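Annual report, structural modelling task.

Input specification for the alpha-D-galactopyranose complex:
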Amino acid sequence: MTITLHLSTLTSQFKVQFGSLDNLICIRSPGRVNLIGEHTDYNDGFVLPIAIDRAIYILAQPRSDNKVNLYSMNYLESAEFTLETISPTSPASWVNYPKGVLSLLFARRLVNHGFNALIYGDIPVGAGLSSSAALELAIAYTVQELSGCTLAPLDMIKLCQQAENEFVGVQCGIMDQFIIRLAKEHTALFIDCRTLHYEYIPIPNNNIRVVICDSGVKRGLINSEYNLRQEQCKQGVSLLKSYFPNILALRDVCWTDFINVQNNLPELVRKRARHVISENQRVLDAVKVLQENNIPAFGQLMNESHKSLKHDYEVSCPELDILVSLAQQFDGCFGSRMTGAGFGGCTVSIVHSEVVERFIDYIQAEYQKATKIKPEIYLTSASSGVSRLFLEI
Ligand code: GLA
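The model returned the following structure:
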């Protein structure tokens, strides 16, 4: 269970940890939830995430030497290292996210002195809401604000993704870092993960709410299964090349072409490719219907996305399926699906605002009845990306 703390509490704690509040800055870096477009980013495809109103906060002050002193209020743990000698902490720990980002910034001479930082977050960890990418961006933005050298948004996004791929060792796509850096309030972000072209799509806020339900299942298999899916997608590309020689990724195959040849593929690869190719089309359709304010059609696409993730991509789990099917049966819920990498974590549902309180009570009661797990439920709105907050000290 997470507790939302006030900035004044964080400031007092900073003084306790580091002795002074001189030159203190504060950075807020949100979590994210993906509305549609799952497991498409590493296939050069399309995604449509929003940033959520839960975030990681960093209070930081510059130091004159090259030491970095971090204190996590969630883990009640300190970490100390110097910029010249950064190596991964073992066993794996939260410290590796800041370390990964800082080692890349240091190698590129984008950080020129150390700092003290207090870190606190109310994004649930391990729930698939990108608390790790939020921490990466929070650190990169802290360095930018402390050193005064601006890193272009796309450079910051790629650097944080590289830190996660190479330093932390998780082969994630670019979606999480992208939305956390560039999100704007009340909008979803349509991202073309090949060209990195993006477009803000306003979310009609008159009568719908975004509801995140945490299954309480930690994403156990995630690393090995995630990497396996990437491999299977690559196999799909190489087999489909014999029909469409110019393709570079599953993104390049359109649905009608795929239908014509899918029966020639081995079953597993066929299912994986079918998910990615159909999901890309669903994202394009979802953007269109959202722009037309057609929420029932948007919800329908979310429902189809879940079906495809469950049956074709096989990244759901029984608890996520229960949450989704409960939500889909509720009158006033437009659509529901698992979100993020899968194998546990959260679902995302779009619910009519007039019935949202009843929806929450219903899910809480019925999910607990079915699984004996009490779900955490977060009512969220599309929030802004990583930024500096004004501190009143
Ligand atoms: C994780 C990864 C993202 C993306 C999703 C699945 O969140 O970090 O890059 O691949 O899984 O859509």
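The chain has a mean pLDDT of 95.
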